[in-house]
Amino acid sequence: MTSTPPSLAPAAAGQAPAARAARLTIDAPVRAFHWLFALSFAGAWLTAESERWRGLHVTLGYAFGGLLLFRLVYGLVGPRQARLGLLWHRVSGLGDWLRGARAGRVDLPRAATLGMGAAMLLLMVVAAPLVLSGYAGEVDWLGMEDAMEEVHEFFANSALALVLAHLALIVLLSVLRRRNLAAPMLTGRTPGPGPDLVKANRGGLALLVLVAYLGFVGWQTVQADPAGASTRHGEHRGGDHDDDD
User: Fold this and answer.
1) At 237, is the pLDDT very low, low, confident or very high (cuts 50, 70, 90)?
2) Is 168 helix (H, G, I), strand (E, B) or coil?
3) In this protein, which residues make up the domain named Cytochrome b561 bacterial/Ni-hydrogenase (predicted)?
4) SS3 239
5) Element (H, E) at 157
6) How many Cα atoms are found within 13 Å in the side-chain-facing hemisphere of 70?
7) What is the rounded distance in angstroms from the CA atom of residue 236 to the CA atom of residue 116?
8) How far, in Å, CA of 156 to CA of 57, rounded?
């Protein structure tokens, strides 16, 4: 009868946990913000040219702005892993990368990482004027509605370009590193041994953000009158044509 050598038993027993080891690196509020932010932008983009869904477009725009405000506050007073300074730190290595590239050391994975961080940082910068110009285009603000619509469209196109760049870089970096880099934004966990970087998941705060978001969008959707909004917008456009005549 053979038996497993004692020296091999611990290694065999420890292989499975090591393979499943993962660290909590992204807390629930940040993950909730990320997906609701993406959902709001996608929904607003898809309804931008529709008179029927104009009310939903405006509602999602306001929700987009509210989420941005939450993220800014959470990035200032929240835990260290959620701080906005960490996002800035991720892109601050661009100068070092450029110096290395000029010296012939082209680090493609690091370039993709820097690009991902830069795209996300710029998206948050663009989000504020995107929301403000959209609001200005919906109200009688010194007769600047048409001009604000042009500004709003510019920032919307800029935001879309940044979103697409962010997604493309995630795919590229996932291929280069041979692991799904989008998964941690779903699970909050990054594969690999070591202690959790996030000490508290704060699921209650994430649930509060989700309930507030759904409550606001649902309430605004119920209150909205798509036919009336379409009529009012049509009257505005009709007025423009009458002036031209």
Assistant:
1) very low
2) helix
3) 27-188
4) helix
5) helix 145-177
6) 21
7) 41
8) 12
At position 243, the amino acid (one-letter code) is D
Amino acid at 62: Y
Can you tell me the mean pLDDT for 201-223? Answer: 93
Question: Taking the alpha carbons of 162, 168, 173, 174 in that order, is the dihedral positive or negative?
Answer: positive
Structure tokens given for 43 = 């929904």
* Residue 162 binned pLDDT confidence (cut-offs 50, 70, 90): very high
What mean pLDDT do residues 49-69 have? Answer: 91
Q: Apex CA 214: angle with CA 56 and CA 42, to 5°?
A: 50
Structure tokens at 5: 């050598």
Distance, CA of 10 to CA of 208 (rounded, Å): 44
CB 109 within 8 A of CB 89: no
Give me the amino acid identity at 58: V
Q: What is the pTM of this model?
A: 0.76
Instruction: Evaluate whether 155 touches 166 at the Cβ level (below 8 Å).
Output: no
User: Helices marked H in 22-144 — which ranges?
Assistant: 28-46, 54-77, 84-91, 94-102, 108-138
User: For the chain, which residues make up each domain, given as ranges?
Assistant: 25-187+195-221
Strand partners, 189: 24
